[in-house]
Amino acid sequence: MAISTSSDAPASTSAIPAVSGRRHRVRRPEPTGRRRILTQLTPWLFLAAALGLLLLLTYWPAVNLIYYSFTSWDGFDQTKTFIGLDNYVQVFTNPDIFRVFLVSVYYFLATFVQMALALYFATILSFSTRFSNLFRGVLFFPYLINGVAIAFMFQYVFQQGGSLDIVLSWFGVTHPPQWLGDPSIANWSLASTSVWRYTGLNFVLFLGAIQSIPGELFEAADLDGASKWQQFWAIVFPGIRRVVGLSLILGISGSLAAFETPFIMTGGANGTTTFVIKTVQTAFVYTHVGLASAMAVILLLIVLLVTWIQRKLFPDEKVDLA
């Protein structure tokens, strides 16, 4: 049977629409006024709870603290008598209050010891060393322990006939000093506890900063014959300068705000009262809430001043995106 090929046969492609290479985007309708407002408010609705808690639990108490510092409130009376700057003047003129600032010097000096130890171990363990992971864990582990537990632990270490005295007796020391009872060495004992606790934090910060330095710099230094000491001062320390500044500001703030270790181990006795312990005693033991508020505000201003100085000495590096 012959197949017709006449021209009047319908073309099979006539029923298929032409497909264009251009994609047609579906145009969404413009949001209405109410929907546009809701879209703009959506991020703030998610932030409302967090901002509300921040304002309620942080900024509002701070505002009240500043207000109380200008009053003679005892924490119980409904009336709060405004006395101006008398509380601030008393903080700097009362020897019993101003003397506690000197206790922070012990913790401030301990900051440099723990930073030096942390930098030393971080530099060594940043390179290939046997059992480096074990040593890293050992150094960082004290920072993971609760501060109250550390205070109780070292209280048994420093007590008369405790662990430290037993170890010293092995070397012939039969009459060790009273580590927490002698005012001349009690603060040194407490400061050494802070060194043991916070060295791990600085160690992790320094170790991460050193490992972020490109390895090509050390390879080039080896080819040039630079010693490890020269590599440290020419490569390592400049590369972690900002982290050193951060650790320094954390150490200074911590030395001013030392509380739990001396409070648990000595209760502030034998000349170990820190500024924060004195503030707590002033507010809750002697019921001078106005004076204690002024002390807290001064501590806050000192920390802000130290932070500002740190930002000036170690400014943030500007990234050129051009």
Explained architecture:
- The protein contains 14 helices and no strands.
- Helices cover 65% and strands 0% of the residues.
- It has a domain at 90-313: Orthogonal Bundle (MetI-like fold).
- The protein has 322 residues and is an all-alpha fold.
The CATH superfamily of the domain at 90-313 bears the name MetI-like
On the 0 to 100 scale, the average pLDDT is 84
Inertia-based shape: globular
User: Based on DSSP secondary structure assignment, what is the total number of beta strands?
Assistant: 0
- Which segments are poorly predicted (pLDDT under 50) over 5 or more consecutive residues? 1-20
Determine the N-to-C terminus distance: 78 Å
Succession of helices and strands: HHHHHHHHHHHHHH
CATH topology of the domain at 90-313: MetI-like fold
As a percent range, the share of strand residues is: under 5%
Structure described in brief:
This protein has helices at residues 33-68, 86-93, 95-98, 103-125, 132-144, 147-158, 163-169, 183-211, 215-223, 228-239, 241-256, 260-265, 275-284, 289-313. The protein is mainly α and 322 residues long.
Give the arrangement of secondary structure elements.
Layout: H1 33-68, H2 86-93, H3 95-98, H4 103-125, H5 132-144, H6 147-158, H7 163-169, H8 183-211, H9 215-223, H10 228-239, H11 241-256, H12 260-265, H13 275-284, H14 289-313
List keywords for this structure.
322 residues, mainly alpha, MetI-like fold, 14 helices, 65% helix, disordered N terminus
